[in-house]
From TrEMBL:
Cellular component terms per the entry's GO annotation: plasma membrane
Keyword Transcription regulation included in the entry's annotation: no
The protein, known as: Amino acid permease
GO molecular function, one term: transmembrane transporter activity
Membrane topology: Multi-pass membrane protein
Record field: transmembrane: 6-29, 41-63, 91-119, 140-159, 165-184, 204-221, 227-245, 261-283
Pfam families: AA_permease_2
Localization in the cell: Cell membrane
Keywords per UniProt: Cell membrane, Membrane, Transmembrane, Transmembrane helix
Length: 285
């Protein structure tokens, strides 16, 4: 049997994967009629997701022993409901799963298209990504993000454990964004700049920043080293977009500042080390 620590570490990446997108209301906040609804939607969405996940994880143990639950095929909720009410429960959950997948596909397509579009409007991405169609929806950003999504799914298909590989890589790739955000929040709370953004809630924001940073570090510790090692490789894939964006500004400044150049060298060194470890057989996905 696994130790208590091993049982805690094992599902951490899955937990992160389950809650990716809870900030979706913030991504689409530019389209909100009332900006105050954004914070409410984020909090309500998080709490609802937390409650649903807890109920789905705990309630099955009230109707089936653990040994039987371990043998239930996916989707597991269909097998559990079929055990309780009969075959129609299986059909009901399977139909719900189809609806859920289609809704999730639509939502993630919107999120993945919206982020590059807004980044293009703010100058962080090339201007081409800021283009919209007649309905003011993302145009170039939608095509590019959809192509990348399809390419990622195609590549993962050739993996031995396609689903596990997909959610591990996807979950860990948000960690750099999360940890830089939480560290920045901690920083502005400590140096007094938080008051420029809000007049109250500094202590709560500081606690959130510190706890969020610690959680991100804990996620990296709990994850498989093979997937963590892929983070710098995949981050490097974004360099062409970064360089393209900087060249478009054409302000006579170097593409990379001195600090950015140091970070780039460190990133490339990590890439070389990771590639060498994979070639040498020390790491395998």
């Amino acid at each position: 049997p696994l130790s208590l620590l091993s049982q805690i570490l094992a599902p951490m990446t899955v937990t992160l994967w389950a809650f990716i997108g809870v900030e979706g209301a913030v991504v689409l906040s530019g389209r909100a009629k009332n900006k105050q609804d954004v914070g409410k939607a984020t909090l309500i969405g998080f709490l609802l997701a937390l409650i649903i996940y807890m109920l789905m994880s705990i309630l099955p143990f009230g109707v089936m022993p653990q040994a039987e639950l371990a043998q239930v095929s996916n989707p597991s909720t269909a097998g559990v409901l079929a055990h309780v009410v009969g075959q129609w429960g299986d059909w009901l959950m399977s139909a719900g799963l189809i609806i859920s997948v289609l809704a999730g596909w639509l939502a993630w397509t919107m999120l993945c298209a919206e982020i590059p579009m807004v980044a293009g409007q703010k100058g962080a991405f090339p201007r081409a990504f800021a283009r919209t169609n007649s309905k003011q929806a993302a145009n170039v950003s939608l095509w590019v993000s959809s192509f990348v999504m399809q390419a990622a799914m195609l590549l993962v298909y050739f993996s031995n454990n396609a689903w596990t590989t997909m959610y591990n890589i996807s979950a860990l790739m948000v960690v750099p964004a999360y940890i830089t955000t939480t560290l920045y929040l901690t920083s502005i709370c400590r140096n007094g700049k938080y008051d420029q953004y809000a007049k109250k809630g500094r202590r709560l924001a500081l606690s959130s920043g510190v706890l969020g940073s610690l959680f991100c570090l804990f996620i990296l510790y709990a994850s498989q080293i093979e997937y963590v090692a892929l983070i710098p490789i995949l981050l490097t894939c974004g360099l062409p977009v970064f360089i393209w964006s900087r060249k478009e500004k054409n302000d006579g400044q170097p593409i990379f500042t001195k600090k950015e150049l140091i970070y780039l060298i460190m990133l490339l060194l990590c890439d070389i080390i990771v590639v060498a470890l994979f070639i040498g057989g020390y790491l395998k996905v």
